[in-house]
Amino acid sequence: MRVEKFKNRPADFLYEMPYEGKNIPHMVLEVNQKCNITCKACYKSLYNYTKPLEQIKQEIDFIITKRNLHVITLAGGEPTLHPNLPEVIRYIVRKRILVDMLSNGYALTDNRLSLYKKAGINKIYLHIDAQQKRPDLKENFTEKDLNDLRTSLSNKIRNHGIECALEITLYQKTLSSLPSFINYFLHSKNFRALLVTNCTDPTPIAENRNKKYLNNEKHDSESLKDEVVLNKEVLEILHKNHRMLPYAYLSSNLMNDEIRWLFYFSFTIHLKNGQTKVLHLNPSFKFIVDWACRTHLKKYGKYPFAVILTPMQSF
């Protein structure tokens, strides 16, 4: 299939995930507006707000009345800075909902990880990319330094019996490093899922936030206008360098004809000799996904979201 034809009309080839109305299986719950590092496309480190535990519980109870949830992802800011995070995790787990978390990993001590595991956390997405200022990285760090940090933190997480995934934000400045990053991800035994977000124009959000919070510091949104990355650019790079094509998509909640999220699936087999065999599934995989979604809905009353499978598991 010619990628030029595909990227111009992807909705003709892909499976549209059937998430709508009450059958949306996922939500992101922000527990605070504060952070212990700075990311180029983020303004959360400018603020210092922690959401009260009772408010978080009320929000969880409310969303359960609106969605048949399979997963709640905890986010912030940096959620590990919330003093009651283990109780938040326990509260969600008691509702028979899986708990994932987005974290930069800097405050993930063994003590915290032990508490999160005991509370019932399912998976942690480590957000580590080249446009962060982090105390655990030297000033002029390299891609190898980033990968070493990713490996070290993911080892710590997995040692506590917690699934580990990876998250990055792409900028025009770092887009050329995507192929090497995908190689790292595919050959790592530590990560079983990947979330890639693109830098978007943050000006409207940043301006609104600066009006809302009493803070004189301003987010440098002007410098990001040339850093915006489009889905079609990522699609082209992944196909050119790895022969990867997505199998499904989600449209924008504002415009149905705008594709906002793309889904990829690859099988990896790690051999005893240290080599890794990789099979990238093509858009025909959508028929299996459709069957799996309908089967999960029939069995559990909800659609699956970001399920990690082993050879002995199924939906």
Question: Characteristics of this structure?
Answer:
15 strands; alpha/beta; about 325 residues; disordered C terminus; six-stranded parallel sheet; three-stranded mixed sheet
Q: Could you explain how this protein is built, in words?
A:
With 315 residues, the chain is α/β, with parallel strands linked by helices. It contains nine helices and 15 strands. The strands form five sheets. A six-stranded parallel sheet has the order 2-6-7-8-10-11. Strands 1-12-13 form a three-stranded mixed sheet, with helices on one face. Strands 3-5 form a two-stranded antiparallel sheet. Helix 2 runs parallel beside helix 3 and helix 3 packs parallel to helix 4. The protein starts with a helix and ends in a 15-residue tail after the last helix.
**What is the molecular shape?**
globular
- Approximately how much helix is present in the residues? 25-40%
Rg on CA atoms, Å: 20 Å
Q: What is the strand content? A: 15-25%
Count of helical regions: 9
Query: Any low-confidence stretches, pLDDT <50, length ≥5?
Result: 310-315
Structural class by helix and strand composition: alpha/beta
Largest sheet: 6 strands, parallel
Main β-sheet, spatial strand arrangement: 2-6-7-8-10-11
